[in-house]
Amino acid sequence: MLNDLLTQLAAKGPFSYVQFGGNDGVLADPLWPFLRDGGDRHVAAGHVFEPNPVYFERLVRNLGKFAQITCHNCAIGSEGGPAEQALYFIHPDDVTTHNLPRWTMGLCSFYDDKNALGGVGSPQAAALYETIKPFIRKVDVPCRSLAEALEEIGVSGCDLLLSDAEGHDWEILRQWDVERFGRPAIIHAEIVCLNEAERSDMLAWFDTHRYHASIEGQNVTAQRID
């Protein structure tokens, strides 16, 4: 569904996007196939946030060839929250050395109780938890509120908003002030790691702000209703 919407968006002209939780820009990234296959020519500007310094280095390396895309080593925290916060993750060196599933490189989160870092979310995550537990690391990362982060880089809105924050996605979306930053044409966010109340609040947000939202697998894709 997302690829079809991206094609429709690109047909209207160059678009801008903001992405939170960019990881390395390739692994399980919903936008990577589009960029890889030449879709970057339809991107006017992209801003990708990745707080983990290990994966940020890889992100810059992978997306550096796209001049219109800028990477930011910063996390979106809570409004009024701390300027620095602990992030839990699996280091890529441990994935290689200890033969862990490649997808565990996508596990970077403020939470160790809402996703596979705590054995939560699926039978697969629960079964794998004891295997990855010895390799869970922690790093302190800089945080900004969403408004502060966008103001710092001079972004007042976008056509496409993406979030893959392993349980922090509703906290990010709830800070998106449509009066200030507009209504993105498409929003694609991870929903699988949210609790029941957060899922309900996220879907209600889409309804309130006139979006048609569809859940597919671990994510929700919402299209603006004009």
UniProtKB/TrEMBL annotation:
Pfam families: Methyltransf_21 (PF05050). It comes from the Bacteria. Residues 43-192 form the Methyltransferase FkbM domain. Signal peptide: none annotated. This is Methyltransferase FkbM domain-containing protein. It comes from Marivita geojedonensis.
